[in-house]
Design a protein that fits this description.
Distance between the termini: 25 Å
Shape: globular
Strand content: 5-15%
Number of strands: 6
Structural class: alpha/beta
Radius of gyration: 21 Å
Mean pLDDT: 92
Order of helices and strands: HEHEHEHEHHHHHHHEHHHEHH
Bound molecules: S-adenosylmethionine
Low-confidence stretches: 1-6
C-alpha cells in the first residue's frame, strides 16, 4: 500500500481545535497525551506553546511520516507511539499528565485512501482496519454466522434492515467470496426495504458497524478512557470528541456516573468511605459542538460532540459499572472468526 499522507489531498482538518486548545490551556506548559494523532492537528496546536510536551499515539502505521517530521521539529517535546490508546498506560509510565485528548473515529487521511475499504465510494478490498486489528471486514463477512453478522450490523450500526442484509451476505458468499467494497454495497442496496433518500447513503450504517467491529472501537474507548483517567493529575482534563451516538453514550455515562455530582452507591463499593469517592469533579453534562463557520469549512465536523471532565483529587479506582453498563457491546466485539 502506498503511503499518501503527505499529499495535500490527504490533509486532516482538526475538529474544534480552538475549543480543544482552550480547554487544555497549554499556555502554562505541561504534559499532554494525544491519543488519536491522525494528521497531528491537536499535537501541533499544543506544541505551539513552548513549555509543553506531547505524547502521541495512533494505531495507524501509515501516518508515520507526519509523526517523524514532528519529532524532528519538536526535539525532546514530541514522542510518538504506534499503539492503540487502550495501551496508553504502557507508554506514560508513572508520570501524571495535564490532559488527555481523544478525537475518535477515522481521519480523512484514512477515509480518502480508497485502498483501505473504509469508504463505500471505493472499489478496494474490504479491509477496514485502522491498524493493529486482528481481523478484516472481509474475514468477518465470509466467516461469521448469519446470526453474528445480524447482531453486529444491528447493534453496532443501529441498522433496521440488519436481518435482510445478513441473510443476503450469507447467500451471496455461497456463490462468490465477498472481498470488495462494491460487492458489499450491492448486497446492502438490494437488501434495504425503503428506497433511499439522498441524505444518508444506504451503506453508511453497515459500514460503520463493520468498522467498529474490526477495530473493537467500543472496547478501545472504554479501556482508553479508564486508562486516561488513571494517568491524569488531580485537576487534569480528559477531552473526547465523538462522532456517533454509541460513543457519546459511553462518554456521557462515564463522566456523569463517576463525578461528584452523582452519588454512586454501588454494590461494588459497599464501604461508606468508598461510596463517596469520585473520579471527576462535578460534571455538568455540557456538549460543545463545532461553530457554523467550522461546519461550512469542514462539513464532516457537523456530527462532532466534544465533552470534557476534570479529574478529582480522589485516588483512582476501577469503574466496574462502566463495563457492566456496556457489556452487550463488549461481548459483541469479543466474537472471533
Ligand atoms: C479523527 S482522527 C484524529 C485527527 C487528529 N485529531 C488531527 O487533528 O489530525 C482519528 C485517529 O485516531 C486513530 N485511532 C482510532 N482509534 C484508535 C485507537 N484505539 N488507538 C489509537 N489510535 C486510534 C485513527 O487511526 C486516526 O488516525
Amino acid at each position: 500500500m502506498i503511503n499518501k499522507t503527505s499529499s495535500p489531498d490527504y490533509f486532516h482538518f482538526p475538529v474544534m481545535l480552538d475549543e480543544v486548545i482552550k480547554i487544555c490551556s497549554p499556555h502554562k506548559g505541561g504534559i499532554y497525551i494525544d491519543c488519536t494523532f491522525g494528521g497531528g492537528g491537536y499535537s501541533k496546536g499544543i506544541l505551539s506553546f513552548s513549555q509543553t510536551k506531547v505524547i502521541a499515539l495512533d494505531r495507524d502505521r501509515f501516518i508515520q511520516n507526519i509523526s517523524k517530521k514532528m519529532k524532528k521539529k519538536y526535539i525532546n517535546r514530541f514522542f510518538f507511539y504506534q499503539k492503540k490508546f487502550s495501551e496508553l498506560n504502557t507508554v506514560v509510565g508513572n508520570q501524571l499528565v495535564d490532559a488527555v485528548v481523544f478525537d475518535l473515529g477515522l481521519s480523512s487521511i484514512q477515509l480518502k485512501n480508497l485502498e483501505r475499504g473504509f469508504s463505500f465510494k471505493s472499489k478496494g478490498n474490504l479491509d477496514m482496519s485502522m491498524g493493529l486489528s486482528n481481523t478484516s471486514a472481509a474475514e468477518v463477512l465470509n466467516n461469521f454466522s448469519e446470526q453474528k453478522l445480524k447482531s453486529i450490523i444491528k447493534i453496532l450500526g443501529e441498522e433496521k434492515d440488519a436481518s435482510k442484509i445478513a441473510k443476503n451476505i450469507v447467500r451471496s458468499r455461497k456463490e462468490k467470496k465477498i472481498t470488495n467494497v462494491d460487492q458489499l454495497v450491492e448486497i446492502i442496496e438490494r437488501s434495504k426495504k425503503k428506497k433511499f433518500t439522498t441524505k444518508i447513503n444506504p451503506s453508511t450504517k453497515t459500514f460503520q458497524a463493520l468498522r467498529i467491529f474490526v477495530n473493537k472501537e467500543i472496547t478501545e474507548l472504554i479501556e482508553g478512557i479508564v486508562n486516561a483517567t488513571k494517568v491524569l493529575k488531580p485537576g487534569g482534563k480528559i477531552l473526547i470528541v465523538s462522532f456517533h451516538s454509541l460513543e457519546d453514550r459511553v462518554v456521557k455515562y462515564f463522566f456523569s456516573n463517576f463525578s461528584t455530582s452523582k452519588s454512586k452507591s454501588s454494590r461494588y463499593f459497599p464501604d461508606k468511605e468508598e461510596d463517596s469517592r469520585s473520579l471527576f469533579d462535578s460534571y455538568k453534562n455540557r456538549i460543545i459542538k463545532p461553530s457554523n463557520t467550522e461546519i461550512i469549512k469542514n462539513p464532516p465536523s457537523r456530527s462532532a460532540k466534544l465533552r470534557f471532565a476534570i479529574r478529582s483529587k480522589d485516588k483512582f479506582f476501577y469503574p466496574k459499572d462502566l463495563l457492566n453498563k456496556f457489556k452487550k457491546y463488549l461481548n459483541l466485539e469479543s466474537f472471533y472468526v
